[in-house]
Write a structure and sequence with these properties.
The complex is a heterodimer of chains A (263) and B (303). Chain A is mostly helical. Chain A has 16 helices and no strands. Chain A has one domain. In chain A, helix 7 packs parallel to helix 11, helix 10 runs antiparallel to helix 11 and helix 10 packs antiparallel against helix 16. Chain B is built from nine helices and 14 strands. Chain B has a six-stranded mixed β-sheet with strand order 6-7-8-3-9-10, with helices on both faces. In chain B, strands 2-1-4-5 form a four-stranded antiparallel β-sheet, with helices on one face. In chain B, helix 3 packs antiparallel against helix 4. Chain B is globular, with a radius of gyration of 23 Å. At the A-B interface, helix 1 and helix 9 of A face helix 2 of B.
């Protein structure tokens, strides 16, 4: 079932891997010219940005240094979001999409336990995302080396692990909502709202007292707080993400096992 | 011998909407059971309950001696969904391979043989298949692992007459091998020639289970006689079992309830040039069940 699921996901995964790699190459490739002209992109230039926008982009500090650029352009917003969308679309192919299309009907009548089926789908999702993360990690590292970014492989690995865990969290959330409701739209709505609010809370919302506490339920808090590009692997934070993912996977298994399919 | 399908008080509500009410039914090994009813009467609900796609509100069902929740037993069932969805770039052969492997392995030669019988092309991506060709793939996957029980929901939809004949031959072979078939349809004609028994379901309730042979005996038979010269209508008046008599010149038309003996003897006095006797029209009985039940319901409602 895992092999079959991976085949089901293959095209989407390959597409997203190519897309994200292209994004990495393009944006990191530009760094070369930024490094040579720090004045143009330096503090004065950034001062023109409105404060709220800077907050939203994670502060945009230290834009001309290697780690600063990598953090702002790649790991702050764009790449995590691309990965989350990728994970969401792939995870929807596991249950909700085939259920809406009617192809799940035959699959649930196979001699596979329902619990086992969801676990296999989850395993395939994790493996697929791991492959995408692996390939894009290599691409990032190679390009970063080529333009002389000056960030060690261990730091990039630490940051990329975070991206993988974040994507897996939202992918598993999609799987859980899809397993419980069988509706693609419901899964995408839950993921969309949680991801956008979660991101806003840890960036713009930082300075707003009333909502600052919400960061504890934002996956982005555990993703970004440890500053893996500067500090290395934030083990504790990442374990929280992995643990939450495990809880969601369990929820998906139990929800799908109880439910009528395709009604 | 234990029944292949054993349902007791099986009931399914979708929220407040009734899907199936209090179904009690046994299907014996080696039997072909036709499951009949108009669209939306609860046929598909029953079938999906048997396969654990949906869960009963009340009651329980055992299939092949096991509870429907036991996954392993489903490897011994072949299932054709009523609305078969096949899509994607995957070729039909690869999909059949996958289904076969999960069910414990199917020799490729058997798949090829079935494909040839049904004239199905397995090398086409499934989304490019027409409705009839998808149905063929559905039949192949249901038959290919030689399951002990075949559950076929509206199996002949979209098939051309030649393939329908081949399909009926396949069903008969399954019975000859002592295996069991449950097939649903909304028209009797599709199942009457292969079924041993039929169950008739209407508005979520099983209202009758009959042997097809018994149904046929009860059935009305239309008869047409042509004579070489006009015949006097009085000669055929009041014959036992003869109804709706119409004599027009040299032609006589009527329906016969039961044996045609009296009519034949009355006609023997004249010169018969042509005789037409239609197959017993079970459809009419079938419709009688529907309308009887309706009257029955009407009576119950005021109470």
């Amino acid at each position: 079932m895992i092999a079959k699921s991976l085949r089901d996901f293959r095209r989407a995964l390959i597409g997203w891997t190519i897309g994200i790699s292209a994004f990495m190459t393009l944006y990191l490739g530009v760094y070369g010219s930024i490094k040579q002209n720090p004045d143009v992109y330096g503090q004065q230039a950034l001062a023109k940005f409105p404060g709220a926008l800077k907050d939203l982009m994670g502060g945009l500090q230290d834009f001309t240094s290697g780690p600063g650029y990598l953090q702002s352009v790649v790991y702050q917003l764009f790449v995590p979001m691309l990965f989350i969308v990728c994970a969401m679309l792939v995870a929807n192919r596991a249950i909700a999409q085939p259920e809406e299309a009617g192809t799940l009907e035959l699959v649930v009548t196979l001699p596979i336990d329902r619990k086992r089926f969801v676990l296999d789908r989850f395993a395939a999702l994790a493996l697929g995302l791991l492959a995408t993360a692996g390939v894009t990690l290599i691409v990032t590292w190679v390009v970063a080396e080529a333009v002389g970014m000056g960030v060690g492989f261990d730091r990039i690995l630490a940051a990329h692990t975070g991206v993988f865990l974040l994507a897996l969290f939202f992918g598993t959330l999609t799987l859980a909502v899809g397993a419980a409701t069988g509706r693609r739209a419901a899964a995408m709505a839950v993921v969309g709202v949680w991801a956008v609010l979660g991101y806003v809370v840890v960036t713009v919302g930082r300075s707003v007292e009333a909502i600052a506490w919400l960061k504890w339920i934002s996956p982005f808090h555990y993703y970004a707080e440890g500053q893996p590009l500067y500090q290395g692997l934030p083990v504790g934070d990442y374990l929280v993400l992995a643990g939450a993912t495990a809880v969601l996977a369990l929820t998906a298994v139990l929800a799908f096992d109880r439910r009528d399919v395709g009604v | 011998m234990t029944a292949v399908v054993q349902a007791e008080g099986l009931t399914k509500y979708y929220g407040k909407r009734r899907g199936l009410e209090d179904l009690t039914l046994e299907i014996q090994p080696g039997e072909i059971f036709g499951y009949l009813g108009p669209n939306g009467s609860g046929k598909t609900t029953t079938i999906r309950l048997l396969l654990d796609v949906i869960r009963p509100t009340r009651g329980h069902v055992r299939v092949l001696g096991a509870g429907s929740r036991e996954a392993a037993v489903r490897g011994r069932i072949g299932y054709l969904p009523g609305e078969l969805a096949l899509e994607g770039r995957e070729r039909a052969r690869d999909y059949l391979d996958f289904l076969g492997r999960v069910r414990g392995g199917v020799p490729p030669a058997r798949v090829d043989a079935l494909a040839e019988r049904l004239n199905a092309d397995l090398s086409v991506p499934m989304r490019k298949l027409s409705k009839g060709n998808k149905q063929k793939i559905g039949l192949i996957q249901a038959f290919m692992h030689e399951p002990e029980l075949l559950i076929l929901d509206e199996p002949t939809g979209g098939l051309d007459p030649l393939v329908q004949q081949e399909f009926l031959a396949m069903v008969r072979e399954v019975r000859a091998a002592g295996r069991t078939v449950l097939m649903s349809s909304h028209v009797l004609a599709e199942v009457e020639h292969v079924s041993d028994r039929v169950g008739i379901v209407r508005a979520g309730r099983l209202i009758a289970v009959e042997h097809v042979a018994a149904l046929r005996e009860k059935a009305m038979r239309r008869v047409e006689l042509h004579f070489d010269a006009p015949v006097p209508p009085e000669a055929f008046q009041g014959l036992p079992g003869v109804r709706d008599l119409r004599v027009e010149g040299a032609a006589l038309r009527c329906t016969i309830d039961g044996r045609p003996d009296a009519l034949i003897k009355a006609a023997a006095r004249f010169t018969v040039v042509h005789l037409v006797s239609a197959e017993p029209d079970l459809e009419e009985i079938f419709l009688t069940y529907y309308s009887d039940e309706e009257r029955h319901d009407d009576r119950q409602e005021p109470a």
